[in-house]
Specification:
Distance between the termini: 34 Å
Largest sheet: 9 strands, mixed
Number of strands: 19
CATH superfamily: Metal-dependent hydrolases
Number of helices: 13
Helix content: 25-40%
Shape: globular
CATH class: Alpha Beta
Structural class: alpha/beta
CATH topology: TIM Barrel
Length: 461
């Protein structure tokens, strides 16, 4: 297939060029003529992007307490409609499980259902002292990284000694550590105080997890990572100070990377005062508007390495079941809306350019998690994961037209510019002009290469 007349976008810039797909790979880029009988796609007026790589999603999430209603077909179909051609999800090691069992269980869930490619981080919850060598198996199995938590006691919580011990071993074995940073004691104290006051409605959710809880935990985790000489990736930064701390660590030579999410760039705590506070129950919670502005500023400076959605497709019935933030599952859907939102409120408002979007949402995630250059770029030999994005049409975001099972979108009624015209995964068209053309099971597990400090540093350049 030959894709002609489009504007190709990479992290390095844009170019008017043609692109040839042969089999599952990009074969050539340049001023190309069609072969006899070769299918030709006219991409005139469109931006031709590498398929987005979302480094942080939760499809078919089972926390042991709550479970989302989606499955790998539903989740990856939503990803495809949003121009995301690779998702990096999590295999949760439940208590008593080996890593092999956790990974096999997750791969079985995805196999035969996924329509886009996927990689997996390992959520480590049960690795006693003396067993750290088990982390080496994850490198051989192609895990993209490990994830640890400084909160959610007792299910996921890791104390400081555990953080230090696991980061030290993971770093030595070629794994990057992702950390959810909130100080558990501060969150617990704030939550208990609100309970005592009878202030547990959904509108109080943000008060239960104050910004200082995130900032303190980021500071501490960066200190421990430096002591462990380990690369560290701070997920879903919701405050400007959290990003500052990561940037300051990187300036000191640490391999430290900050991720943020569209919800922290576009929404703020005033949403809890509106008619649907249940749409915005997530951890960390939405912050004051000043934080939103601060995150955009730091993104513009290049201090944020990636944007991920932290997608989580809880159904509306689950979000409204109790009316208390204590018993409402946290997380919101975002895979399908990230690209049009970032185009509309990032690119069109002058906060970022197309190459920035590709760098944050495709190239850097692929570099940090061992998928580059197979994923995240347009170059001969890379997988033919392509998005043709028409920047001109206007649409209104509404849950009824999206492909989630949640029954809501936190961006209901928002007007966005642009539309995904075509999405290709390894040479197969999966979405075209708003119609799903994919095949369940076409999406494959992509084993990640071991963490590369050199590749990771290039993500900060």
């Amino acid at each position: 297939m030959l894709i002609r007349n489009g504007t190709l976008v990479t992290a390095g810039g844009t170019i008017r060029a043609d692109l040839r797909v042969e089999g599952e790979r990009i074969a050539a880029i340049g001023d190309l003529l069609p072969y006899p009988g070769e299918p030709v796609v006219d991409a005139g007026g469109c931006m031709v992007l590498p398929g987005l790589v979302d480094p942080h999603v939760h499809i078919a999430l089972d926390t042991g307490i709550y479970r989302t209603d989606d499955d790998w077909f539903i989740g990856t179909q939503a990803a495809a409609f949003g121009g995301v051609t690779t998702v990096v999800d999590f295999a949760t090691q439940f208590r008593g499980q080996t890593f092999e069992e956790a990974l096999a269980s997750r791969l079985e869930e995805a196999g035969g259902k996924a329509v886009v490619d996927y990689a997996l981080h390992m959520m480590v919850t049960d690795l006693p002292p003396g067993k750290e060598g088990e982390l080496g198996k994850l490198v051989a199995q192609g895990a993209a990284g490990i994830k640890l938590y400084t909160t959610y006691r007792p299910n996921y919580y890791a104390d400081d000694a555990t953080l230090l011990r696991l980061m030290r071993t993971a770093g030595a074995m070629g794994l990057i550590t992702l950390v959810h940073c909130e100080n558990d004691a501060i969150v617990t104290e704030a939550t208990e105080r609100l309970k005592a006051e009878g202030q547990t409605s959904l509108r109080e959710h943000g008060r239960s997890r104050p910004p200082i809880a995130e900032i303190e935990a980021v500071h501490r985790v960066l200190f421990l990572a430096a002591e462990a000489r380990a690369p560290v990736y701070i997920v879903h930064c919701s405050t400007a100070r959290a990003v500052d701390l990561v940037h300051e660590a990187a300036q000191r030579g640490q391999l430290a990377f900050a991720e943020t999410c569209p919800q922290y760039l576009l929404l703020d705590e005033t949403a809890y005062e509106g008619p649907h506070p249940e749409w915005y129950i997530l951890q960390p919670p939405l912050r004051p508007a000043a934080e939103r502005a601060g995150l955009w500023e730091r993104l513009h400076r290049g201090w944020i390495a990636t944007i991920g959605t932290d997608h989580c497709d809880y159904a509306l019935r689950q979000k409204t079941a109790t009316g208390s933030f204590l018993t409402t599952p946290g997380g919101l859907p975002g895979l399908e809306t990230m690209l049009p939102l970032l185009h509309t409120f990032g690119i069109l408002e002058g906060r970022m350019g197309w190459p920035d979007l590709v760098r944050l949402c495709a190239t850097n995630p692929a570099k940090l998690f061992g998928l580059y250059p197979r994923k995240g770029t347009l170059q001969p030999g890379s997988d033919a994961d392509l998005v043709l994005y028409d920047p001109e049409p206007e649409e209104i975001l509404t849950a009824s037209r999206l492909h989630y099972v949640a029954g809501y979108t936190p961006y209901e009624g928002w007007r966005v510019r642009g539309r995904v015209r075509m999405v290709m995964v390894r040479g197969q068209i999966v979405v075209e002009d708003g119609v799903f053309r994919g095949t369940p099971g076409w999406g494959r597990f992509v084993p990640a290469e071991a963490f590369s400090p050199q590749m990771a540093r290039s993500a900060l350049a």
